[in-house]
C-alpha cells in the first residue's frame, strides 16, 4: 500500500511538471502568433487585399512590387489600382476602406495629411513621427522604409544653368521672376511646396503651372516652362540633361518611400507586414531611378517589378 502511494506521488509530480512546461511553452509561442511569425501560415490566408498607387512611374512600380510579394508569400488575392491622381486621394480611399495598402513617402504625408509645419527633421525622426501619427489618428501603420529618399529638387536645362551660372536654388533670384515653373498637381498649394519654398527663399516665379507629372517633363523639353520641380529619382532628369539646383536652404523634407497598411487589415493577416518589409532597405536612389527609366521607356510595370524582385531573391 505504501509502495502504491509512492508511485502515485511520483506520477502526480511528473504530471504537474508536464503541465507547467506546456503552459510555459504555450506562453512563449503566443507573441509569435500575433506577429504573424512562427505558428501562422500565410499560405492559409483567405481573402483579397487591395493595393493602390498614384499615376506616376515610381508609385506604380512599387505597388506592383507589393502585389507580387503578397501573392508570392501568402495565399491572398491582390487587386491593384494605379489610377489615383494624388496622394491625398489615395489616403481618402484608404480611410474609406477602399484600399488596404499603398506606397507613399514620409515627407508627403507628414506635411500634407498631418499638416506638420515645423523645421525639417532627420529621416529617422520623420519616419517615427509619421508612423506614430498615422497609427493614432488613422489606424494605419508604415512598413520599414524601402531605402531611397525621393525628394523634390529644382531643375532647369543644363545649358541655361551654365549660361546664367546657376548652381543652387538661391541663384534663381533675379531670373525666376519672369519664368514659368512647372510642378505636379499638388506642389503649388502644399505647405512643403511652392508657398513654403517662396517664403524660405524669398524668391517667386512669374507663373506656376501645376500639371500631371508626366506632362511636366514634356513641357520643359518643349520650352513651355523654364524650370520644373523634379523628383530626385526620376530618370528623365538624365535623359533631358537637366541641371539640379542645390537646396541650399534645406527646405525640402525627407521623402523616404515605404508601404502604408491599414491596421485592421493586419489584424486579419498579421504576416502581411513582414511580407511587405522584405523590400525594406533593398532599393537606393540610383536603382529606383533606373527602374523608373524602364517604366518611362514603355516597359510594363509588372515586368519591371518581377525582374527586380527575382534578381534580389525576394520572390
Described by strand count, sense and barrel closure, the largest sheet is:
5 strands, mixed
Give the overall shape: globular
* Overall CATH architecture of the largest domain: 3-Layer(aba) Sandwich
Total DSSP E strands:
10
Q: What is the tally of helical segments?
A: 13
CATH topology of the largest domain: D-Maltodextrin-Binding Protein, domain 2
CATH class of the largest domain: Alpha Beta
| Low-pLDDT ranges | 1-35
Helix content: 40-55%
Overall mean pLDDT stands at 89
Q: Number of domains in the coordinates?
A: 2
Amount of beta strand: 15-25%
Give your account of this protein's structure.
The protein has a 5-stranded mixed β-sheet. A 3-stranded antiparallel β-sheet has the order 3-10-4. Residues 1-35 have low confidence and may be disordered. The chain has 13 helices and 10 strands. With 315 residues, the chain is of the alpha/beta class. Helix content is 45%, strand content 17%.
